[in-house]
Amino acid sequence: MIRIATLTTLDPTDVVALVKTLRATFGLGTEHAGELHVPKGGAKDGSWDAEALLDAAGPVRAVADDKVLFVTAAPLTLAAGPLGDPPSWGFARYGGDRAILSLSRLPARGVTEASIENWRRRLAREAVHVIGHLWDLHHCYDVRCAMHPSWSPHLGPTPDAGLCTFCREKSERKIRLAKT
Question: Domain spanning 2-176 has what CATH number?
Answer without folding.
Answer: 3.40.390.10
